[in-house]
Amino acid sequence: MSPTPNNIQAAVIQHKGLPDQASSLNQTETLIRQAASGGSKLILLQELHASLYFCQTQTYDNFALAEALEGPTKTRLSALAKELECVIVGSIFEKRMAGVYHNTAIVLDTDGSLAGIYRKMHIPDDPGFNEKFYFSPGEHDQIQQIGFTPINTSIGKLGVLVCWDQWYPEAARLMALAGAEILLYPTAIGWDAEDTKEEQQRQLDAWTLIQRSHSVANHLPTLVANRVGHEPDPSSNTQGITFWGNSFISGPQGEILAEGSNTETQILSATLDLSRTEQLRQIWPYFRDRRIDAYSALSQRSIKSQ
Amino acid sequence: MSPTPNNIQAAVIQHKGLPDQASSLNQTETLIRQAASGGSKLILLQELHASLYFCQTQTYDNFALAEALEGPTKTRLSALAKELECVIVGSIFEKRMAGVYHNTAIVLDTDGSLAGIYRKMHIPDDPGFNEKFYFSPGEHDQIQQIGFTPINTSIGKLGVLVCWDQWYPEAARLMALAGAEILLYPTAIGWDAEDTKEEQQRQLDAWTLIQRSHSVANHLPTLVANRVGHEPDPSSNTQGITFWGNSFISGPQGEILAEGSNTETQILSATLDLSRTEQLRQIWPYFRDRRIDAYSALSQRSIKSQ
Question: What predicted TM-score, i.e. pTM, was given to this entire model?
Fold first, then answer.
């Protein structure tokens, strides 16, 4: 099967976290160059790839890790995108203004320009994942094209979401309705050593499954880049997090095209045939039959009976 | 683990279709008795179990198969539910009035009463599945408690949906928001012999996956009863449908608790621990973080950019 304009080779990079930004970006650059030399034109990085996952604790000093949109990460990725002529999806701890910080995905186009950004909409907050302490939730505005809005790039419209968003079918659907051609999830998720092996396996399976289901429901390929490796809890209150890797690429029927291990730094790649989406939507016309007259209660927190 | 009020043994019955209602209901009764004698207190039947899957063709004579809510199927299942003290979820071709027919799930409580009904909301229409010809879509009305509204029974609130609904995360979510404790899908889906084996496998995998994902997204157990066996196309225009069975029960993390074959009449059963839902929702608080301020476009058919 020879490549056509509808075929895009995509790569997902999962790696172990490094404590400082310079070494992190060096590592990332090496991996991006490797992915690009393998032919990939779209490269997805993991969540907050330029640091350790600092949200394990609530520590004021960590705000010093935040950078402006036009900061060192964007500068570095932008130069690489231009040089290697590929689209790179990175993830930064964004300082928007003093007191307003976001968990933001940035998309660099093949000419090095910032094609768009996505500020994480659903923010988790659990032991070990103190994200509500660090990040304001992103805003959604259809007119201003922020929030659940795909980012236009030279290789297609990217439905970029971040980590916790992956559990919400609503987010993937909104991206699909707005024309996304690929779903992408930079992620940082792992195991708590206090859970049993069986529970850990159920969590990993559920995580893979829910994201593959966004492919199925929307007939879109999905790219997921997750951290890998153990990061200790700086407070020593817990046993830290073992990020479970298992990054993957699924096709528009949820079929696995590439899948990472749960321990190693890896580059996964697969060729996406974007023309499959429309074929599948004609054969399985879910979008034709959505009951839009009956969905308004999706905007409720809970539906009271009577 | 001894049963507690939160544990419910549930069964799913998949069987080959029979052409006439009397033999179909006899077969169903035998299978229900078997499931109940095995200890199941909740029994799910497949879609339109009292006939062959007549929607393969558009045939006016088939409207003669429709029955009133208070028809022979309800009468038979009601008597069985009362005698066996279990909740039975059946499926009928409902004649609501001359010219208005529905694909309706009926829920019989342990006292034989009709606990509620669900009229299929999403209606498919594809070669071999001419459902828009036969069925009006169900209405949704939160106040009147019809549509995406769980049905109260003596063993819990049942989020009953039907077949094509299974592809819509919106439907499962609305049921969960309204308090459903279990999701149930009577189904009739199968393979077209013209598809390759690989494509058939992708379809089956996608179907299992999307329904398990409703368990994951909502932390609810899911029961799916699908037809099994080949039913010829009465018009001989196609090779008919090979219903793929593979009925299953998943737990509230999407884990498979029981799974049927793709060829045999079978009863599957599993014990559901309904207390797991709240535990999981505290550990993985998706419902806490839904961005209800940003979901209104889910009620649009398509979201125009700019």
Answer: 0.97
| A-interface mutation test, from B289, B301, B306, most A Cβ less than 10 A away | B289
pLDDT of residue A144: 86
ipTM attached to this prediction = 0.96
Residue A3 pLDDT greater than 60, yes or no:
no
CA angle B39, B41, B46 (to 5 degrees): 105
From the list B124, B170, B177, which residue is nearest A300 (CB)? B177
Ranking A237-241, B88-92, B139-143, B218-222 by mean pLDDT, the lowest is: B139-143
Q: Which of B148, B171, B253 sits opposite A202 (nearest CB)?
A: B253
Is B147 an interface residue toward A (CB < 8 Å)?
Answer: yes
**Does domain A7-299 bear CATH number 3.60.110.10?**
yes
Q: Which residue of A has its CA nearest to B209?
A: A213
Which pLDDT band, with edges at 50, 70 and 90, does B3 fall under? very low
The full DSSP string for B162-215 is -GGGGG-HHHHHHHHHTT-SEEEEEE--EEETTS-HHHHHHHHHHHHHHHHHHH
- Integer Cα distance of A51 and A33 in angstroms: 20
Q: Which residue of B has its CA nearest to A216?
A: B206
A304 is catalytic: no
Enter the tokens of residue B54.
Answer: 């007549």
Note whether A196 contacts B: Cβ–Cβ < 8 A: no
Contact status of A278 with chain B (Cβ, < 8 Å): no
**B137-147 average pLDDT score:** 91
Instruction: Please write the tens of the pLDDT for every residue from B8-31.
Output: 999 999 999 999 999 999 999 999
CA dist A36 and A5 (Å) reads 18
H/E element, A186: strand A182-187
Whether residues A255 and B202 touch (CB distance < 8 A) is answered with yes
Task: Kindly name the residue from A47, A131, A181, A231 that is annotated as catalytic.
Answer: A47
- Best of A126, A163, A164, A210 to disrupt the B interface by mutation (most B CBs within 10 Å)? A210
Average pLDDT over residues A11-28: 96
Alpha helices in chain A (DSSP H): 21-37, 72-84, 131-134, 169-177, 197-218, 275-283
Report the residue of chain B nearest A168, measured CA to CA: B217
The b/e string for B208-246 (b: 16+ C-beta within 10 A; e otherwise) is bbbbbbbbbbbbbbbbbbbbbbebeeeeeeeebbbbbbb
Give the whole-number percent of chain B exceeding pLDDT 70.
Answer: 98
Q: What is the dihedral of CA A162, A168, A171, A176, to 10 degrees?
A: 110
For residues A6 and B148, the model is more confident at B148
Q: For the residues A171-175, what does the mean pLDDT come to?
A: 98
Active site residues of B: 47, 120, 163
Q: Is A163 a catalytic residue?
A: yes
In the predicted structure, residue B1 carries a pLDDT above the cut 70? no
Position B305 scores a pLDDT of 60
- Taking an 8 Å cut-off on Cβ atoms, the answer to whether A217 and B283 are in contact is no
Interface check for A123 against chain B (CB to CB < 8 A): the answer is yes
